[in-house]
Amino acid sequence: MAINLKETLRAWILIGACGCLFSNVLCAQKTYCSQPQLDNLISGIESRSGNIIEMLYQVGQGTGTCFGVDVRDQGFLKKHFDLAGQLSLRKLLASFGPAVTYSTGESFVYVRVGNGARDWLDVVMPSFQTAEAPPEIVDSELSSRLYALANPGSGSLGDTSFSESEKVRAFSMKNATVRAVITALVTNTSGGGMWFTARPHPAQDTLPSQPFWTILVYAEARDLNELRLRKALGVP
To answer: How far is CA 178 from CA 40, 187, 198, 205, in A?
Structure first.
């Protein structure tokens, strides 16, 4: 059953201490994401072709690897690749070509497609704190906080609806980039997930009028995630 964000946002989001203070890293706690295994063969993934986001979603859901896919070149999303055959994550990432670079952390793989100037993902937020809540609620709060940071005195970015789903556990960050906060949202969601950008990033001198990233939670139904993915990519 759909629930209106305005009626529930303040009940879910508590702007207060979560029990740990730090600069731009998470509290020491077990992540919900698997440690990236770059050289292990990818198994259990159905063979199909798709763009880079579809490919990495399949890998992530099948292996528990969490991704952030920062697409700076939207034209790259029109390219399709095939996941068929025995290959490792390292070889899959290399198969996308030199435009795709990546870095790994203990529980996350950050993938960048193309180059671009600093933008709203690079903005440093003085603080971001949340209580345990559904990922849609935390995501909406982050979007509204970013909008308010760019336009002091403004309201939220608008309504959304959500269904009861997996929860993001409470976390707190200080002086962290928007990119780092979105990553924390994913790694603190039970079951893990991924975030990606599929629309042009607004420049820092342009007000972000709507969220330009999409969150997918692996524990959600696959058909629901694929619907969100298609909507974000603008394909039927």
So the answer is: 31, 14, 16, 16
Q: What angle (nearest 5°) sits at the alpha carbon of residue 117, between those of residues 116 and 123?
A: 120
pLDDT at 152: 61
Per residue in 91-116, pLDDT (tens digit) is 999 989 999 999 998 889 999 998 87
Q: What are the two backbone dihedrals, phi and then psi, of residue 168, each rounded to the nearest 5 degrees?
A: -90, 125
Question: Is there a contact between 168 and 135 (Cβ–Cβ < 8 Å)?
Answer: yes
What's the rounded Cα separation, in Å, for the pair 148 and 207?
Answer: 10
Average pLDDT for 16-29:
37
Q: Would you say 142 and 208 are in contact if contact means Cβ atoms under 8 Å apart?
A: no
Tokens of 89: 């994550």
Locus of tokens 């990519």: 233
Tens-digit pLDDT profile for residues 167-208: 888 899 999 998 999 999 999 988 899 999 877 666 655 655
Q: Check pLDDT > 60 for residue 12.
A: no
Distances (CA, A) of 57 to 82, 154, 183: 13, 34, 15
Q: Among the residues of 39-177, which ranges form H helices?
A: 52-63, 89-95, 135-150
Question: Residues, the chain, total?
Answer: 236
Neighbours of 140 (CB within 10 A): 23
